[in-house]
Structure formats: C-alpha cells, structure tokens
Specification:
This protein is mainly β. The protein contains 2 helices and 51 strands. It comes from Nocardioides luti.
Length: 811
C-alpha cells in the first residue's frame, strides 16, 4: 500500500514477501506504549469487546519490547488481545506527519489484517498475539536532518470498546529518499549531400543519420525512428532494442535513410524534415523527442566553358659552352572551349645564364625574371615568346671552407574588431628575403565567438619578397587578436670572408584559380635544383580554407576547401639549392626535411613543435589537415616551429606537420664542371582552366666546359719577332692566358726546367682556333736552333678552367 502526505489518498503496493531483506531499526509512539490502554493480566479478566493493543516493533521482535521509538524502513506491526471472530479485521493506513508531512510515502504491505483468530488475551501472555504484519515504507523527499521521517499509523478494528480507530506516530530513519523515474531521450539528426558541398541539387541523393541518447534515469526499450519524408521510416522503423541510461546509439537496426532532391525541393530552396524518436519505459510508458535537419537547395547551373591553357618550351641547342647564346621558344596555347583571360607567361632564367633579350607580347624583365602579359587567348589561339641568354663561365676553383647564412623572424600584431577585416604586414630587415610566413590566431574575446568565426583571407609574401602580409575576417561579436610572422634569410652569405655568395631566389610563381564549392588541389613546381619557399595565398573573391599546405619534392601542394565559390591567387618562390658563384666557385645549401604526426583530441586545441638540428633553422613549414580540423597558424622561433590546431569534430583526428631546416653553414665550395641547365616556364590565367598540370614546361641543355689543346706547336720567325702557334678547341667563348714552359735544362742558354719560353693573351671562341704565343727573347735562340724540342703548354681561362699539354716544337 502507499500512503502519501495527509492531504493525499493512500496508494498500496501490495503484500510484502518475507524474502525481502531490509534494514531493521526502531519506532517511537507519541501516544503511549500501546493503542487502547494497558494489556489485561489474563484472558479471563478481559471484558467483551475489542480493546486490544497494537505495537510497532523491529523486524523479528515478538512481544518483548513495549514499543520502539525509531524503526527502519522495514518493521512489523503486532496485534494483541483482540476478541475472536471472523469479522475482526483491522484496516491499516500510514501518513507522512509533521515535520516531514510534505514527503510522499509508499507502503509495501496489506491494507487489512485479520486479528480475530482466538479469544482476547493480553500482551505478554502465550496466546496474546492475534496478528503480525511486516511493512516497508518508501519515501520521496528530504528527511528530518536528525530524526528521519515522521509517520502516523492508524488502525481501525470494528467492535472495539469506544473508538474503533486508534493512531500513533513514530519515526522512521535510515531510509534514503527514492529517486522518481524520469525517462527521457534526445534525438540528433544530420543530413549530408552526395557531393559534400552542403547544398542539394536536382536528383542528388541526401543521406540522413540519427543519434539517439538516453537522457533519463531508466533504461529504454524498443527505440524507434519515424520520419514522414523518408519512405523507409514513414511508418516507424526500429533503431535499437535496448538503450541503457546515458548511452547513445546511431541506430544499427535502421534501414538506409535517403532522399532524392526533387524539382519541388529546388523550388522550395531547401529540404527540411523532422524525425521523431520514441522509446518504451520499464512501466510501459513512452517518451519521445524530435529533431529537424535542413539542407539548402539550388538549381544546377551549367558551368561556364573553361579554358584549356597549356605551354610548351624548346631550346635551340642540346649543348653550349660558356659565352655562347641559347634561345628558348615558349608557346602558350588555349585548346578551349572557353577563352583564357589575362594570360601571363613567366620564365625565371636558370642560374648560369645571363639575360640578353625577350620578344613576344607584353614582355618585361626584372633581374632573371621574364614576364609576358599576353592578355586574352581565344579558344584555339596561341602566342609565342622567345628568350635569349648567354651561358655564364663555369666555376672551376674549389673552396675548402664553408660560408655562413643568417635566419631571423619578425612579427607584427594584428587586431580586428568584431564584424571587420584587418591586415598586417611583417617586414624583413634590409638585406634579407622572406622564406615563409604565418597568420597566427591567438585569442577571440571570451564568449563572443570561436576560431571557426575567423577566416584567413590572405597569407602571402609581399610583392618584393621581403615581408609577409596577413588578412583576417572576424565574424565573431568580439575582438580578434593575432600576429603576422615572417621568416627571413640573409640574401648573401654573412660570415665575413674576402668574398660572399648570393642566395638565388626566383620571382613569384603564381596561379589564379576560380572554384565552385568543394575541395580543390593545386600544385606549383620549382624544378630540379630548387625548393619551394614562401607558399602563400590570397582570396580575391569569396572565401575558403587552405587545409593542405605542404612541400612535395621540388614544389608545393595546396588543398583548398571552398564552401560556395571563390577565386584565389596561390604562389611560391623558388630557392636554388646552390649559392651564386663567387671567387670561381659555388656552395650548396644543406637542407633537411622534418616530419611528424599530431593527434588532436575531439573538440580540443593542441600545440606541437618541430625542432631543427643545432646548426639548423626552420625556413618553411608544412601542414596537412583532414576535413573538420583547423590550423591556428604557426610560430617560427626560428630553430623551432610551433604549430597550433583545433579539432571541431566529435572524434580524434591526426594532423601531419613538416619543417624544412636550413643549416646556417653552407657546404664546401667546388667547381661545377659540365652540367645540365633546366629552364622552366609557366603560363597562368584568371579564367577557370581545365587542368593546371600542363601549365608548366621545361627545356634542358648541357653546359660543356671543354678546352682541348693540340700536341704540336709550330714555330715561325719574322724579322724582329718569333712566335709559336698551337691549335685550341673551346666549347665556348672565353678569355684565356697561354704560357709555354721548358721541361728540361737547356745547356749554354740559362734556361732551366720551368723557365717561361713564350706567352700571350687570347680571346677564345667556340670551336677550333689557333693561339699564337710570343717567344721571349731569352728563349728565341734555343727555339730557332732546335735546342728545345718539347715544352709544357698551360692555358688558364678567366673563369678558372686550366688545361696543361706537353707539346712538340715543329719548325
């Protein structure tokens, strides 16, 4: 039975079985030791009528206690001294009583008890016990802090002398209040489109997923999903058989839930539908929750015809020597079907060549960079550019020493008010060039937004390549704080030797891309002997997120996520892995690529670092993110690069990071010798291009630094002048000095081994030619008389090439 507060009717749970094991405590009566007076001394003395006694006792106590002032939740009620009779049945009721009268009370036990089994006898006599019943009380509400719960017991027995109803109050302690059942669940519904761009188009398949969480305090069974828009769910479908408290399910029993976008959906501008999850409670009740998923729709617009831009490149000779001229022919073509607008051909002359001229539409030169602004190429049209250059002398002198470079960083603060766009530029010191940069997100005013509200519109090197510019769009309702950082490399070696070597960096290699919604990949390649530096971007229309920004071989790879549409300019510069020549030699840069992976826990932000070796500095960083992750920028220190990432998803994600380290000490100097020269050209357009893989072309020739000397020198004489002529074959034009030395002592002449016999200066051209040496007067008699038959010829070119040949002297 259940008895509630005094103002509530009782509710009975039913008889209590003796198998229940419950704690026993004591009870207190406030109305005396017994109900109905003191017990008679013997049955014979009892007057007729029910004047018996009722006692409250601990579980298992019979007769011996008078009454217990406090009992536990489970106790027994005992009847003594009631008359015999089939109608002697007591009605039993319980009520919560002040000071805990506002507590709800449930009772396990019967509402009536038969107590007329024998003639009346008193308590304490062998036959005095007429009835015994165990009750368990359950409370919902707070107890008295000291006493527990105060309860009133009322016994109504017909035929009693006087009032048939007798009452007493007592305390029940040690019972924790019961927590009422509170069943509930929560439904989370999501929708994705087949293309993944977040918009539905005609006939595109939409896929729905469901997550149901038991948010109540009782288990649920027969969890089902109903969605009128999805045929498989219209009548309700099973999600999961049992869902424990606090558990979440993605409905393994559910059939595939899809919807095909219709013309009506496109007209409506969105597909919006609501699903309902239901579950059954232990008491056979039901709980439910609904959630709506919406995806915008749009009409499919036929894409504008794209250009089919490409470039080819040839060189007029397979090999050339120093001083010779090479000519490259570049042809830009547009295969259509759309026009290519603002076509630009760029060519950076390779190290070892010197610019002579360029012909073609809109061609200009800046240093080694040649740019030709062709304009618009209609479908099927082409444009030709020719570039001429001379081959530089080839260094031949080795340097046993290395040189030193310097790397530093510069920062500029960037603060952007709410709803605004802000830009900052960090500039390198004079004499330095930028190799990398970053826009670092530091803080958004608390409670005004998150990192997702911040968009990096620009992160790229300045036009002159000596700084870094960052632009951030702040969609939060508070202030954004960040920094723009640039990594700077000295443009020459700085170690203080009697000569220095220039760092060779090309102009910007750029591509302009226009995209629709989705993920887009772009590669820029620097070619052999170079590495990509200053990878950057700038959105000129729309917005996007550069998710992959990493080095691949000699180039760079970008992956850009675009929510709707965007136009962006992507760029790199190319750093030669060999310093410029000085003092007749060059030096190689010592570069090392570091890589690592970082696990970013769901919903968290982490920072990880890569550190170069002791003599290394990080000059270019790489990041490779999965969808749902966000780079918060990196901090160049510059030996160590610190990366920060935010994971917006519900699962742990892995990020791949990299750092290109440059040793501040160069490699040892050396001669170049014969080698290949590769020249790369690129074509770009502001129009959508069908593919960018054919927008890069190269042509290669070999520099042959040959200098061959004949083995015979012919002597000729004229009045006042004696000369020696020797045949010399050169691979290219160059200035040279020729000397002839004695190889043995010539008697009676004063000439010894190593004495200079003849010399001259010559201007060599490519091919075979005669070089004439003037004979010294001290050697003229010996040469004319034939006393010198063999001599050592040494020719040294101005660029350091040295050839030695033993020649025979012929008249």
């Amino acid at each position: 039975m259940t008895h509630s507060r005094p103002d509530r009717p009782p509710r009975w749970r039913g008889p209590l079985t003796w198998l229940t094991a419950l704690v026993v405590v004591t009870a207190l009566t406030t109305l005396g030791a017994a109900i109905g007076g003191s017990a008679p001394s013997a049955a014979a003395a009892d007057p007729h009528g029910n004047n018996g006694t009722v006692k409250i006792a601990e579980l298992g106590d019979i007769d011996s206690p008078s009454n217990d002032p406090h009992v536990g939740c489970t106790f027994q009620v005992e009847w003594y001294g009631f008359d015999e009779g089939a109608d002697i049945i007591s009605s039993v009721s319980f009520q919560s009583w002040a000071p805990t009268s506002d507590v709800a009370l449930d009772v396990d036990g019967p509402e009536t008890v038969f107590v007329g089994g024998d003639p009346a006898t008193g308590a304490g006599t062998p036959t005095g016990l007429d009835g015994l019943q165990v009750y368990t009380l359950h409370f919902t509400g707070a107890p008295h802090p000291v006493q527990g719960y105060h309860v009133k017991l009322t016994i109504h027995t017909p035929g009693s002398i006087g009032n048939d109803s007798k009452s007493k109050v007592f305390w029940v302690e040690g019972c924790a209040p019961e927590v009422p059942a509170n069943p509930s669940l929560a439904l989370h519904k999501t929708v994705t489109d087949a293309s993944g761009d977040g918009r539905g188009v005609l006939d595109e398949v939409l896929t729905y997923t469901f997550a149901v969480t038991n948010t109540g305090n009782v288990p649920l069974t027969d969890v089902r999903i109903t969605d009128a828009t999805i045929p498989a769910l219209a009548a309700g479908a099973p999600c999961v058989a049992t869902l424990a408290v606090g558990a979440t399910t993605t409905c393994p029993l559910l059939p595939s839930a899809t919807h095909v976008v219709s013309a009506a959906d496109v007209t409506a501008g969105a597909v919006s539908n609501t699903a309902t999850a239901t579950g059954t409670t232990p008491s056979s009740g039901h709980v439910s929750d609904s959630d709506m998923a919406m995806i915008p729709t749009e009409a499919t617009v036929p894409p504008a015809p794209v250009a089919g831009l490409s470039i080819t490149k040839t060189v007029d000779r397979a090999q050339a020597g120093p001083g010779e001229v090479v000519t490259w022919t570049l042809t830009a073509r547009n295969a259509g079907p759309g026009p290519a607008q603002m076509v630009l051909v760029t060519d950076t002359l390779p190290t070892g060549t010197t610019y002579l001229s360029a012909t073609g539409t809109g061609c200009t030169r800046s240093g080694a960079d040649v740019s030709c602004a062709i304009g618009t190429l209609a479908a099927g049209a082409s444009s030709v550019v020719t570039i001429r250059a001379t081959v530089d002398p080839v260094p031949h002198v080795a340097d046993p020493n290395g040189h030193q470079l310097d790397v530093t960083k510069v920062e500029a603060h960037l603060s952007v008010p709410r709803g605004a766009t802000g830009t900052a530029t960090a500039s390198c010191p004079s004499g330095y060039v930028a190799t990398d940069g970053s826009v670092r997100m530091d803080a958004v005013d608390q409670g005004t937004g998150t990192w997702i509200d911040e968009g990096v519109l620009t992160s790229r090197a300045t036009a002159d390549g000596t700084g870094w510019t960052g632009t951030v769009s702040n969609a939060a309702t508070g202030q954004f704080q960040g920094k723009v950082a640039v990594v700077c490399l000295s443009n020459r070696t700085v170690s203080g030797e009697d000569h220095s070597h220039p760092v060779v960096v090309t102009g910007p290699l750029t591509t302009t891309q226009t995209w629709g919604a989705g993920a887009h990949d772009v590669d820029l390649d620097c070619g052999a002997g170079k590495v990509a530096i200053t990878p950057g971007w700038s959105f000129t229309a729309g917005t996007g997120s550069v998710r992959v920004d990493k080095r691949i071989g000699t180039g760079w790879h970008f992956t850009v996520d675009v929510p709707t549409s965007a136009t962006a300019v992507l760029s790199v510069r190319c750093l030669s892995t060999t310093l410029g020549a000085a003092g007749g030699h060059t030096h190689d840069l010592v570069l090392t690529q570091l890589a690592d992976t970082v696990v970013v826990p769901a919903g968290q932000t982490v920072e990880r670092s890569l550190t170069c070796a002791d003599d290394g500095k990080g000059i270019v960083a790489s990041v490779d993110l999965d969808q749902g992750e966000q780079s918060l920028g990196s901090d160049p220190r510059p030996k160590t690069r610190a990366f920060r990432f935010s994971n917006r998803t519900l699962t742990d994600r892995t990020v791949r990071i990299g750092l290109l380290c440059l040793s501040v000490r160069t490699g040892l100097g050396g001669s170049t010798g014969d080698h290949d020269v590769v020249n790369r050209a690129r074509v770009s357009t502001t129009s959508p291009d069908a593919t960018v893989s054919d927008d890069l072309a190269s042509a290669t020739f070999r520099v042959v630094d040959a200098l061959a000397l004949a083995s015979v020198a012919r002597l000729s004489s004229s009045p006042g002048q004696t000369e020696l002529t020797v045949a010399v074959t050169s691979s290219g034009a160059r200035a040279a000095t020729a000397r002839l030395f004695a190889v043995v002592r010539v008697q009676h002449t004063g000439l010894r081994a190593g004495s200079l016999l003849a010399h001259s200066r010559a201007r060599l051209h490519a091919g075979r030619q005669g070089v004439t040496l003037a004979v010294r007067s001290v050697a003229e008699p010996a040469l004319r008389q034939g006393d010198v038959r063999r001599a050592r010829l040494v020719i040294v070119t101005r660029d350091g090439h040295r050839e030695v040949q033993i020649v025979r002297i012929r008249h």
